Amino acid sequence: MHDVTEIRTAARSLKVQMIAAGLLSASETSGRLDILIAKLDVEGFLSLRALPAFWELLALWQMPANIEQTAVSLKEQECLRPHINSNTLPPMSPLGSHTNVKAEPSATDVPHLLPHPQTLVGEVQLGGRFDKLVARLCRSASSSAGITVNFERLEDILNLPIDSLLKLDGVGTSYREDWQELKVLYFQATEFLPVPPDLSDVVEPLELVRDDMRLNLTQLDAADLKVVAKLERVIGRADIRTILSFDSLKEEAARGLGGRTRSQLMQVRARLAAELLLIAAGTLDYYAAPSSLITATTQPFVSAAALGRFLIERVDIFLATLDEKSQLIFQHRWGFVDERLTLSEIGKRYDVSRERIRQLESKINERLNNYLALNSAEIWHAATSMSYEALRLEMADLSECFAELAHFHEFLAFISHGRIAFTGSLAHPPLTVLDSYFALHGTAIERPVILQYLQQELGGDEKDASNALQFLYEQSQVALESALVRPLNLGKREAAAAVLAEHANGLPWLDIARHANRRGISRSSFSEQTGGHALQDSPLMYVAGKGVYRHTRFVDFSTVDEADIFHSLRSYFATAEREVAHLSEAQAGLPELRKHDYYILRYVVKMHGEGHGIYFNGKSQTDSISLNPEFDLFSQKSVILQSMRQRQAPLTTNEVAQLLKSRSLRHAKLYLKQLMDANQVVQIDRMLYTTSENAYKNIDLDAMQHTIESVLRRHDKPVDPSVIQHELNALQGEAYSKYFYSSLARYFAQLGHWQRRHSLFALQPISFGSLTDAIDTLCKAEDSVDKNFASLRLHIAISEEAARVSIYNWKAAKARLASGVAVPELEDELEGELEIG
């Protein structure tokens, strides 16, 4: 037995001599001697022989008799084990303690028959700590600097030189003890399991890869994940086939992988190849083995809870593969364990553009889908039939990672490729969102172009655009044909424009109708017998001849001097001494106008004349112009009424504006007010208007008058339409809006049945000019909304909800005025009568 004190003294002496010989720095003397020696290169290790303290330390070392006897016994049996290289398998480590070797290992730690030493490492199954030892050695061999070892078969581990073992990172005392014990077991064994069939000589591993196989990244440690991620960055993918064939990369791609990365990828490739051979031999079921490096893409989950646990584990590992910036982009865009931010907000944090963040997010999400590999419907079977709340409870750990439940729903919809679609929690795009784009560009658009347009139009990201397009497809608004998107439900004007967008020289009406009908792009078929009298000049098309129409995209308006045209027309009227003229006469009389094609001139005057004080009317086949605005205002209101009567369905303010030459919302609101004052148009909801005959066709006006009058009489003070709405809907079981009741009350007030002040109605004269006037008189800006409401309802009958909104808006207007921001006069004028959409 050696003396511990003497060994410590010899060890200290050896450290001093190593420092003197330049083999060790003075700062390293506190480290363990065996580790310090293991770090030496070959030349430094050989230099130890020249140090007296080294031989003194070896002389103090004693090996227990039982181990010496075991070593002798094993030596005598070498002839029975031709498969083990006796020249490279020393009986014990000269630096190990005799206590590190268990002479009688437990029978429960190893199988009854040991795997043959020539067994491929990936096929070795020893059980317990020995399997852990083999895995640890393989991983350390691929990640340790300054050493190159390759464990292909078990005998490579058994024959590993002790100096190489000591240089492996992460292989501590317990692993070295297990390694020594494993060697003893193999020296004592007399027979082994047969060597598994080596399919590598028959077939290449690449030929064994199946389409439903994917790399199970949960079985890779951090170092392996890092090199796999690097491979993906260099060549754009890192699936099983890519890893198996990465050494055949082209020279320019191979330069992106360093020697150490390639060495570690070789280790991963060896593990993959070994598992493929086991699968091919029928000894490994990659559908049922969650701890294997290869797993199935179609693997189902027995419950949503199991799927949730899998997802949170995979997302955590996925985030570990990203750099810090990419992690934050992922978290902020999904609202995952952090607040959700817009692309612009994240861009400001990193001082880059919104578009750059969008590009990075797109790459991250593409990597996420490739990483998760959850394309199969079987994976989501357990979750697709569950309610939103049940799924949230089943996946509680995952759902709690998101700032809002809607973000959790959106995430599931994305990674499930739409199989779990939470349509109730996500906003749908307007059904007409693509109509104007088709009208401008044609009847068949490439899908990436449409997705980019949707992303810009909706202000979302690629996920939102893809979901929006899928929604439009499900609503039969578009057809998806290969890589193209086609419209299916355009209005006739948009459908005609879409057809014309593909014909630079224009088309006669009949050809437009036939093209549109044959392609099925309009919500209603075009008549091929009558002319195209319903078509009008618009920003998208214009009359280019008798019965011929042309798209405006083919006109170079930069060559048209609008200012010169309208200056010439004003000069013409100054000398004509009349209010109305024909455009053709003006062109014939003015050289400045004769240089323009008549139909281009007509279009410019018709579409832009109002802004220059020149008004156009092309009715009765006569293109008339005038300086009198009333000349054109009447025709505009007629267009609105005609459209409402033709469509039967209500129109929004935006849709009314599109009927006007100016496309002006301000003009649309003005015309709507005038038409409502004349009881020709009725506001039936916040943003919807229709003709009075359409609005009241199912209403008993006499009965409605008496019912509303009973409400006014019961309250005996000015009444806001919100009260009429609540009481009459409850009484009659209807669901009309307060705007509809306001229109009715205004109509009856105009007939002289009761009093009206803007949106207030009563049987007796009203002392307030409007609801805003009442609030201004009865409320105080410094008081709370509750206190102001209590004051207001003493004098005005109004619902609490409507009162709170009105008081809040009144306070906001006061604040804007106090800060010098002007309130638009038109909004004041329309107070309580027309909602501004």
From TrEMBL:
One Pfam family from the record: Sigma70_r4
Q: Which Gene3D superfamilies did the record assign?
A: Winged helix-like DNA-binding domain superfamily/Winged helix DNA-binding domain (1.10.10.10)
For the biological process aspect of GO, one term held by this record is:
DNA-templated transcription initiation
RNA polymerase sigma-70 region domain location? 319-368
Top-level division of the source organism's lineage: Bacteria
The UniProt GO MF terms for this protein read:
DNA-binding transcription factor activity
Name it: RNA polymerase sigma-70 region 4 domain-containing protein
Q: Which organism is it from?
A: Pseudomonas frederiksbergensis
The taxonomic lineage of its organism, from the top, reads: Bacteria, Pseudomonadati, Pseudomonadota, Gammaproteobacteria, Pseudomonadales
